[in-house]
Every structure is written in C-alpha cells, then in structure tokens.
Design goal:
7-stranded mixed sheet; 6-stranded mixed sheet; 12 helices; about 425 residues; about 35% helix
Length: about 425
C-alpha cells in the first residue's frame, strides 16, 4: 500500500453491515461514480468465514429487497427459509403446554413473506462471492485504524502499518465496541448485559411449515426460527450466570433443556430432535449512540445501535442504516454537494436516530415486562397479547414492522435503485 491513498468514502469494518454498505454506496444496479474502500481489521478468511456458528437472521422483506438490488440475495435464495407464521406465548418454564396468545400470518398484502430466515454463514459466503466477482471496491485487510483527523474538505485516517488514507467521508461500521466511535468522542446510552443469548441449530424429523415460535419465559425469550429442511435455529435467552453452564452441557442434557422450553405442542409438531452444528453464547448488551454523525464521520449498524434480539431486528436495522446513508450520500454527490459535510450527514441522522432509539428503548421495556414471573405483570401482558390478536390493524402493524416497510423507507429497501 502506498504511504498516502485517496478515496471518496472509507468504510471501516468488513462485516455483515460494512460490506453491504460499500456495495450500496457504489449504487447497486446503477453506478454512483463514488470511489469506495473498505478497511477491515480481519482478513478475508476470518471476516467471511463460512463455518457455522449457530447464528441465523430473520431478514425482513425490505432487507431482502436491498440484498437483491446489491446482487447478494441471488446467492442466498436457495438457503433462505420463508417465515410463514409467528406464534407468541407467555408461560412458566414448568408449563408443559404453552398456549399461543398471539398468532400472526407472516405475509404481506401481496402474499409475499414478511421475513426470511438465513443462517449467518450463508450470508457471509454470499457476500464473499459477490466481492470476489467485483473489481470496483477495494478491500484492504487485515488493517488496524489507529486514529483519524478531519479537515475542511477531507478526513485523514492513520493505519497501524504507517499508511495514511484520505477520503471525503469515513463511515464506521466496526461493531458495538466501535473503536472509531470512541476516537470520535461520541458517547453512548448503555444497558448492561444481564442476559446472554444462546444459539444452536436443531434438526428434527417432521416439517416445521415455516412457523416461528417465541415463548416468553421468566429468564427471557426463547425463539425457534425455521430454517431450510427439517431444521430450526434456536435463540435462547438466559441469565448471564447460567448461560455458560448451558453451553457446556453434554448434548443429551442440552436437548432435554430445549425440549422443556419448547413445550409439548411444538415438540409434537417437530418430532425427534438432534443437534446440527455448534452452539454458542453471546452477551446481550444494548446501546445507542448519542450522535450518529460528526463532520466527515458517520456511524452505521451496531456501532450506532446495539439491539437486544428479542425481535430479531438488529441486522435489519443495520441494513436500514445502509440504505438511508447510501441514498443520502449518492443524492448529495449527484447534486454536486459535499458528501462529508455535517449539513448533508444530518439528513441521515434525522432519518435513522429516532427510529433506532425508539425501537431499542421499546425492546428494553418489552424485555423487562416479559422477563419475570410477576403474576400481576403476567396478567396484564397476556391480556394485551390476546387483545392484539383480535385487532386486525394491530396485526397489520406488526407485519409491516417485521417487513421493514413502515415509516419513511429508503428507496433501496423498496428494491428501487438510487
């Protein structure tokens, strides 16, 4: 690498948000003319490792639209499972039967699914394939960013190898513990990780028919998401002090605990269970950045908002950021405006910050409401779920949110090029 290098936009972070962002900034199916470089801390063998890690994403219809526009969905489609229905229950761990309090037919008005479930390793492999086919986006890795300084017309990024890279805009997509966010002096509102999320893939003998189930248990939500074939992705929330013990259980003990949480009705549908891959646990930290932008600097994805996976929307909200920022920057570029100026970036911040903060705060409240065994709260929340299940407009609102098509929607999320 040369001592000094120049692009229009630097994307710091080569993960599941950073790489789509670089593709979107290039314009998807219409060339934006912007020069984009990705700076990734991890090398390609780590950044897009194809190994299974137990994680899966419930990608909204709008996220699918974006990935299709970027040429990624075509490599995902055969391994993406439509989520046809969602059943929600609220029960104690000891309850054998877990009655459904809210049933949602997870379809939009045109009959298309509102969400698709895709395993993390499948999405990583698809992104790796797309980048292997592209020659218009540079990915520099492995590289560490040690600092950056802003000037009137550019941002200068210092790298650990002594290199310097200049651009008109630096986009930080380097995760919840974002080092660039700290270097920028941006504070966060944080919620401590009293819960951990345990993930695993479970094979079963009977078809799931695309049905997703979420049991609200006293320790936290226990979700079962349909995957292709006779498999489901398990998303099990547990108190921090118990999560490591669960992960360390032998297979039979682990499956016994899974059966206990699934309940008889779901077990009857799925049949015999077996593990299909590794299991892992992650701390469920939550945060929202107090600012999303500074002059020539912008936060995207988990660097801007780390969400609880109670509603499975973390990556979807990151991809909403991607579409909103790409539209903001490309529109400014085509009008001959300064893409890194604070006045332009504030359009993106106004578009995304309130939406993300309101959703994250709502998830904190919802998790607190359901992650307990208080009899009064149980009565109130069960009454609320029952009422929502009988109100068509409430169901439509849930489906619209799950599809990612509520509120002010960027054009790329509608499948429209910018």
């Amino acid at each position: 690498m040369s001592q000094s290098d120049t692009s229009d936009i630097l994307v710091a972070g080569g993960g599941l948000t950073g790489l789509p962002l670089a593709l979107a900034l290039r314009g998807g199916s219409v060339d934006s003319g912007l020069r984009v470089t990705v700076l990734s801390k991890e090398g390609p063998e780590d950044r897009l490792a194809p190994e299974m890690d137990g994680r899966a994403f419930a990608l909204s219809a709008s996220s699918r639209n974006l990935l299709q526009l970027l040429g990624v969905w075509q490599h995902v489609a055969e391994q993406a499972q439509p989520m046809t229905a969602i059943d929600i229950s609220d029960s104690r761990l000891s309850d054998v039967m877990k009655p459904v309090l809210l049933h949602l037919d997870n379809e939009m008005e045109n009959g298309d699914p509102a969400a698709w479930v895709v395993e993390a390793h499948v999405l990583r492999a698809a992104l790796a394939r797309v980048y292997a086919e592209r020659d218009d986006i540079r990915v520099i890795s492995p590289v560490d960013v040690t600092g950056f300084t802003t000037a009137a017309a550019s941002v200068e990024v210092q790298l650990a190898d002594g290199g310097v890279h200049r651009a008109r805009l630096l986009a930080a997509s380097d995760g919840r513990a974002s080092g660039l966010r700290k270097l920028a002096g941006i504070k966060t509102i944080d919620w401590p990780a009293s819960q951990w999320g345990i993930v695993a893939t479970i094979a079963h003998t009977h078809p799931h028919n695309g049905r997703a189930v979420q049991h609200f248990l006293p320790a936290g939500p226990f979700a079962v998401l349909p995957l292709t074939g006779n498999r489901v992705s398990l998303v099990w929330t547990e108190q921090a002090d118990l999560a490591s013990k669960v992960v360390d259980m032998d297979d039979e003990e682990f499956l016994a605990q899974v059966r206990l949480r699934m309940g008889d009705e779901l077990l009857e549908q799925l049949g015999e269970l077996s593990l299909d891959g590794p299991r892992n646990a992650f701390p469920l930290t939550m945060l929202v950045a107090r600012d999303y932008v500074k002059e020539r600097f912008v936060l995207v994805g988990d660097a801007a908002h780390g969400m609880h996976w109670i509603a499975g929307q973390g990556l979807n909200y990151g991809l909403r950021d991607v579409a909103a920022l790409a539209e903001t920057v490309i529109d400014a570029h085509r009008l001959g405006l300064d893409i890194g100026s604070l006045s332009q970036l504030q359009r993106y911040e106004q578009w995304r910050r309130f939406d993300s903060f309101a959703f994250t705060a709502g998830m904190v409240a919802l998790n607190s409401l359901f992650s307990n065994d208080n009899m009064i709260l149980r009565t109130v929340r069960d009454f609320g779920l029952n009422i929502a299940g009988h109100l068509p407009f409430a169901k439509n609102m849930f489906i619209s949110e799950a599809a990612g098509l509520s509120g002010s929607v960027p054009r790329m999320l509608k499948g429209e090029p910018v």
